[in-house]
Amino acid sequence: MRFLFLIILLAGTGLGILYPWAATNFAGREIGTYRAYDRSGGYRPVEVALASSDAPVRVLVDLTTLAPPQVNPASAVLTITASTRGQTVLAEALNFYDTTPRERSPQLPDPVFRDDAGLIREVQPGSYRFVIEQGDADNIQIQRVDLILRSGGLEVDERAQPIGLSLMAIGFVGLVLSLRRKKDSRPDNPNSQPPNSQQPNSRQPAPRWGRDADKS
After folding, report:
1. Does any domain span residue 212?
2. For residue 145, what are the CA distances in angstroms to 39, 45, 98, 104, 141?
């Protein structure tokens, strides 16, 4: 049973954590990385030429800060809109909530947070304009903002993460219970008990020396 619950735990981890992360960050090929903000130049729109063969396009945003942003899901650190030919094809508020920071390199130790802005599913050939602006979250020490576009991005099944997390919970609980049951079923080792508790009615040998020595 322990092996079965371990398999369930690993399957849940893959489905609930690894699959969405890999589909978001590594599926398809990278079109490019574009600087949308720095402290010297401020915010600036990004113009990218896309082809119909790029569809669907995954839109990611990297946020570099001096310290981890203290935000909640109700606030937005950044907002992003994408448009082509005067038509908005993507509009999203990014809060970078519950994201894991990483470092670009040892030379750039500032933490980098990545948020997924979504997919542009249908791409018409032409120029796309991406505008990233400050959200309503305060006290965010933003250093840089980068726009990352990936071609052929996968759309993560929304059912995958809840199912995966449920499997992780089942596997973990089952594994803990099976280990505890095995521990409780172990027989007691009689050698670990004190000599007097093994046979309480047994007669102990008489001492050979002292006041109570055997005089026979």
Report:
1. no
2. 10, 11, 18, 13, 11
